[in-house]
Design goal:
Number of strands: 16
Oligomer: single chain
Radius of gyration: 32 Å
Number of domains: 2
């Protein structure tokens, strides 16, 4: 049997991707995007080289489980701060999305930032939009090989530099660069350098808008945070339609036309290839390139700017705009409360952690007829960058005292130590199990470093 032919409309499930060459535009929003790219890339590539108190200012030292951020050192026990940081980041995204749409996507998302940098290199080596399209269609010749080769050489070098910088946040970057030059990197460092470099080269050089359209989940659930008062990029259909070409200086209303001359520059400037005149679409990353392109055309035609602009659905329909609405107030309040709480916690954070464990083998011990003893293991973590000597005292029960192997317990910087503490209480001062008391650990050289741990003292029942 011969296989029946499929109808033309069913011949494929997916439309083949057409490479997008965004048109270069100039304007106030493009200037903001360029500034954002320079600042954010400058921070990413420059921060590992900043020194602080004789060490790298930002270093996530996984082998020793220390995370240095300027003057602060965090330990795995400080995981709560990481959780709070992620919650703050999520709330910040929700807050600004409810206010002004996908600002993050258009100006600060790593995919956007690195893609913009790769497009700059593409323009330097292959020319403007028309030249790049022509180069794509031309056969392979010497010029095409040179231009494409130069582009990919820049891309690869930039991607490898990105990989080195990424690994430099986990391995001291001066040491890393020295070993990279001498080809003496470890297997994991080599893997992550190449992996992150390859991911940068692939995502920013080839996938580009497909990451935003198909891979990023934010594009799918952003509508849940939008409402009719959210600031979005909008095309003024009442003013622009019907669209059509006309000579410069002609009054469009006399010809029954709107202000849109149907030049398609807004489409050519869009990095995701959408036509904003068809309404807001989930592919829009709010980069405002279409606004700059349209404003430049309006200037040439002597028409007012703003045919495409940041606006809200209510504003476009002439309705009242409510900026301070419940969801914005709730996001803002939670965000402010969390940031305030984290900052207050950091200012009051002590570089000392103490864990008290009771001896499980012997609940209590009778030293003599007048004294009961409990034994505890005290684990001390010095989270400071200098060594400290600590003293251990107890309070909370009549006649309570503690006996340790040494009067002072010295713990090195970023180190742990264990001490056996024998706590004794007069027999007539306690009865039964679970008598509460406090163990106080305090630094000898810095009395402000102090922790108080609650514990239970067990004694025989009369």
């Amino acid at each position: 049997m011969t296989r029946p032919e499929m109808p033309a409309e069913d011949a494929g499930m997916y439309v083949a991707r057409e490479k997008i060459h965004p048109r270069e535009v100039k304007g106030r929003f493009q200037n903001l995007r360029n500034l954002a790219v320079i600042v954010l890339l400058g921070i990413f590539y420059g921060l590992p080289w900043v020194q602080w108190d004789g060490r790298q200012a930002v270093l996530f030292d996984l082998p020793v489980r220390q995370f240095h951020i300027f003057g602060l050192t965090f330990w795995p026990q400080d995981f709560l701060y990481l959780a709070l940081l992620l919650i703050i980041a999520a709330l910040t995204l929700f807050f600004f999305t409810a206010l002004a749409g996908r600002l993050w996507c258009g100006y600060a998302c790593p995919q956007t930032v690195w893609t913009e940098a790769f497009i700059w290199m593409e323009r330097w080596t292959e020319g403007n939009r028309q030249k790049r399209i022509k180069l794509d269609k031309s056969p392979w010749n010497r010029e095409k090989v040179v231009r494409r080769g130069s582009k990919h050489l820049l891309w690869v070098l930039f991607a490898l530099f990105t990989g080195v910088t990424f690994v430099g946040y986990f391995t001291p970057i001066t040491e890393l660069v020295g070993r990279a030059v001498s080809l003496d990197l470890g297997p994991w460092e080599t893997f992550w350098l190449l992996f992150y470099g390859f991911a940068t080269w692939g995502n920013a050089g080839f996938l580009r808008e497909q990451v935003c359209i198909y891979m990023c989940p934010y594009a799918r659930f952003q509508s849940a945070m939008f409402d009719r008062n959210t600031l979005i990029i909008s095309y003024d259909e009442k003013r622009g339609e019907p669209r059509g070409g006309r000579p410069r200086g002609v009054e469009p209303r006399k010809r029954g036309l709107g202000d849109c001359i149907d030049c398609n520059l807004c489409v050519q400037a869009c990095p995701t290839g959408i036509d904003i005149r068809e309404g807001l679409q989930y592919e829009c990353i709010a980069c405002a390139a279409c606004i700059d392109a349209c404003d430049s055309v309006m200037d040439k035609m002597n028409y007012p700017r703003g045919l495409i602009r940041y606006s809200t659905e209510n504003a476009m329909e002439g309705k009242k705009v409510r900026t301070l609405r419940p969801r914005v107030l709730v996001y803002g309040f939670l965000l402010l409360a969390l940031i305030t709480g984290v900052l207050v916690s950091l200012t009051q954070r002590t570089p000392l952690a103490v864990e008290v464990l009771a001896d499980r083998n012997v609940i209590y011990r009778e030293v003599d007829w007048e004294t009961i003893e409990n034994v505890y293991t005290v684990r001390i973590l010095n989270k400071d960058r200098v060594s400290h000597a600590y003293t251990l005292t107890v309070e909370g029960l009549p006649g309570i005292e503690v006996i340790t192997r040494s009067e002072q317990i010295r713990v090195g910087p970023g180190s742990t130590a264990s001490e056996v503490a024998r706590v004794r209480v007069p027999r007539d001062a306690v009865e039964g199990v679970g008598n509460p008391f406090r163990l106080i650990m305090q630094s000898v050289d810095d009395p402000s470093i102090r922790t108080v741990n609650n514990a239970r003292f067990n004694a025989p029942s009369e």
